[in-house]
Model the fold of this input.
Amino acid sequence: MKLGIIGLPNVGKSTLFNAITNAGAQSANFPFCTIEPNVGVVAVPDERLNKLAEIHQPDKVTPATIEFVDIAGLVKGASKGEGLGNKFLSNIREVDAVVHVVRCFENDDIVHVEGSVDPARDIETINIELIFSDMEILERRIDKVAKMAKGDKSLEKDVKILKDLYAHLESGNNARTFETDEEGERVLSEVALLSSKPVIYACNMSEDDFSSNIDDNKYYNIVKGIAETEGAAVIPICAGIEEEIASLDPEEQKIFLEELGIESSGLDRLVSACYSLLGLISYLTAGKPEVRAWTITQGTKAPGAAGKIHTDFERGFIRAEVIGYDDFIACGNMQVAKEKGLVRSEGKEYVMKDGDIVLFRFNV
Done:
């Protein structure tokens, strides 16, 4: 999974990126500090792996991972090539979802590219540029499909769907808010639109605001309202605090979070929001050689999940031996779980659940 961190210049993108990835990207108080996208791979926090490792004492523990891409700041006119527009837009095309960092704090020492703090305006600036870019892509697509429809009348509905979407964008709406049927979803899946990407708004607050009552932050409430209308996710975050957390070892991090009255780090909350937004879950494999988490989409059947490990597992799938994580922990080991009848034999139609511990049987 690849997530792009975007936002206007100087909203805290690179600071947040550095904190959650320890990648050491440059961060400074001037626009376009980030030019080439910085990339960092982080482990998905999952306490279940630690518990399974205590039981199995494996040679290796492998968590699921997320790739974060710190993309250059965007300004008005990006869709026309202003600033680093073309580079910015091409970088967004490559990610699965977008983490849009929005400045929700006042600080005269940190320059705002627009001269003032206004989350609604900042969000609109980026959304409009993505929409403009999408409209250009749609214009070309409509022309192409319309020409094809002259010789194939079945494509006339495709043209209508594309034109309806164009009108939707022209009214200032994101592609992800366009309502259509199954046929429409098929047509739209063939067009790579930036404004259709799932979005998480990360509200970057001051340490004082974040450590007190978050709901008192007027900027955060503005972003929450926008997210609700778009079907986007939103999380409060403080890039400064995340920087401090990143400099501590795991035990010190726990103490630091407790002192601040925070249940989990920004990374934990960001990963949780990403999984929820993208409809992802993790299944687990556990044994002496390795304890590992595998990320799949909700609704994936057992053979498809097996294919995440190796294509041979899917091609020669026979069955899956499955036990829920909680049941396994309650039993303490697989032998007791089998004696209690908690290990199930599932076939090709079994839909995987989050936390399933699985052993796949296959024959190629």
